[in-house]
Amino acid sequence: MNTIGEGARVKGDFEVSISKIVTPFSFLKSHTHDYYEIYYLMSGRRRLYIGNQCYSLKKGSLAFIPKNVPHKTMTASPPEHERLVIYFHDAYIDSAVKEQPDLLLPFSGQEPVLELNQQEQAFVENLLLQMINEYSDKDRRGRALYFKSLLTQLLLFAGRKQPDGSTEELKPVNPSIREIVQHCNDHFREPMTLGQIAGRFFLSPSYVSRLLKKYTGHSFPEYLNTLRIRESQRLLRETGLKMIEIAEQVGYLNITHFNKNFKLITGMSPLQYKKMAQNMEHVTLKHKPEFLEKHRF
Description:
The chain is an alpha+beta fold. The chain contains 10 helices and 7 strands. Residues 178-276 form the HTH araC/xylS-type domain.
């Protein structure tokens, strides 16, 4: 087996590596290995080289690196970033590939790096948190199978994001929706209704509703709740605020409403998410010294 970086090896058929980096460093030489790699940037910026192509990664970038293809990551500005990497062998996913032959399409498709929107980041990060939760407890019953099911979901999601080869010309984005989405992104913590948004942009509520559904795939309440829950996830990971304080900071006046929407969007309660995030932090700290010495990503 080829090595990662300066000698680290994947132990078993799959492995997860996560780390928070605050100092500048780069992988000076490209390397290859005979297993697949999925790289997700949770925060910050990096430059990723796959073969002779360079990709600028930002928060929410999801990269699929094929086996035996030279690659490396390098510092971007600022250097601080947090990333999660999944490694797995053919043998680990072989049974799923037999059932779904194009499961590994993300590694051979036209877009090896996907830029995820808010809703997609929430979905992917939820999968990744569950993966970490499974990976960190080696005695959990059905650990490998459940991890494989989560990996399969991630690969199917990414495969569906690949271009289908259609030559149909893309329609230009309505300029109104850009302004509406930006306003929601900037002010989701404040009280906000569809009627208020429509009035602000001199449009009818029904028209705004249709625009949001067409260009984001979500109704106004769904899009607003997703923005709020995404921010609440960050606060749960990075602060020690009480649940009621977090709910208020992201725009919920009712803790019951907050809990209901959090579970609807993430599939778990805020408390469950907080425990999984704490588990992720534990794994991050546990892996960080070895990561810095051996991987140099």
